[in-house]
Specification:
10 helices, transcription regulation (chains A, B), transcription (chains A, B), BetI_C (chains A, B), homodimer, DNA-binding, elongated, mainly alpha, Tet_transcr_reg_TetR-rel_C_sf (chains A, B), repressor (chains A, B), 200 residues
DNA sequence: TTTTGTTGATTGGCCGATCAATTAAAATTA
DNA sequence: TAATTTTAATTGATCGGCCAATCAACAAAA
């Protein structure tokens, strides 16, 4: 069986399996065996490539964040006007891939883990900073810097909040509603700075 | 040592110890030994009174929620006008007790656990519903029902979002700023329904 | 002497990690 | 090209440790 060049294939399979297992299980308390089974390999192989469970988890978060980042960059570049870029950021945050129950569960599990693992925390802080800075950068073209920071803070909180509320599946808000709520927030708070004639 | 009437004392001590342990540890993966040590009793006693770790955790969440609920009720009753009641709800949500790092960590851990435990989920859904219904009830006196629901959804999301962002301690927002952001949200979205002369 | 509170000791199970062993492809040498 | 050595991939078996849960035993109040 030993076919050369399997490392990247296995690594990806294991990371994907981890995301799925964590998502299904709704917790980082998944066993290496379970992950390995999902990936169709032995537990020993997971250790071989990642050294430890901790490292495999870190790699999984990193992968999740990279995917999200790529989507954001792409979305931002696809439009020109600042206000449209803001909408693009919002849209990506609630993109269907992100909204899958397992993905949401995984995010939540990682957030909780950030209390424990410094590395996990670092990565999530990075995500938060990027979201914030993307929002601020575009808001600054629409309103004074002070207000931009404040509004960005609020929008970021709203995005995260809508997200976490999905995890409870209590009053399941649709993707569209989530986007609409966040858009409304921006619109309402940008209104004071709009040219008098340009009311929507 | 055996003095009669210890049961309620021990139960409370164990629940408090659990909250502290979970908060410190930032995860529900705390051992019964650790909890028992915090409470100054043996692990066996914790099992004696709660039957299982799961039950002890449930009792801890219930306690957290009861405390929060009591605070909310009290705050709501202390003022009259709907708009003031809304402010009171917000203030309680960011009340200093709730904002303690350990409390935030505990909340987060429980949210994550809701993916796993149906009972945990039930309790958190209950919290979400209460928050929502409190907001909606008061908003309905200030704007049409449809808008009330929408604005409540947004405000609840914002509260949860600001909360979860605290857990990362990245750009630590102060309690006052969190309250201000949420207040701003309400104010901005209620503005269209206010009497023309009554602009703040 | 019954009830209540309490613990130490123990057990059974699970899981992360390690390691030696195996297989087959690739590289090297003859 | 055939023979060999090296390297990469992979796993089964196993170990050590931790932890939830159990239980028998004991102490003191009722």
């Amino acid at each position: 069986m030993p076919k050369v060049g399997m490392e990247p294939v296995r690594r990806k399979a294991l990371v994907d399996a981890t995301l799925k297992a964590v998502g299904d299980h709704g917790s980082l308390a998944v066993t290496m065996s379970e992950i390995a089974r999902h990936a169709g390999v032995s537990p020993a192989l997971a250790h071989h490539y990642f050294g430890s469970k901790e490292q495999l988890l870190i790699a999984t978060i990193r992968s999740l964040l990279q995917q999200l980042r790529a989507d954001v960059v792409k979305a931002i570049q696809s439009v020109q006007a600042p206000r449209e870029k803001l909408s693009a950021i919002i849209r990506v945050s609630f993109h269907s891939d992100q909204f899958r129950p397992e993905t949401i569960a995984a995010w939540l599990a990682f957030y909780a883990d950030a209390q424990r693992s410094e590395e996990t925390r670092r990565l999530l802080v990075l995500y938060a900073r990027r979201l914030r800075s993307n929002l601020v950068a575009n808001l600054k073209r629409l309103c004074p810097a002070d207000d931009a920071v404040r509004i960005a803070e609020g929008a970021a909180a709203m995005i995260d909040g809508l997200y976490i509320r999905q995890s409870l599946r209590s009053a399941p808000i649709s993707i569209d509603s989530s986007i609409a709520l966040t858009e409304d927030y921006l619109t309402a708070h940008l209104r004071p700075f709009m040219a008098p004639g340009a009311r929507a």
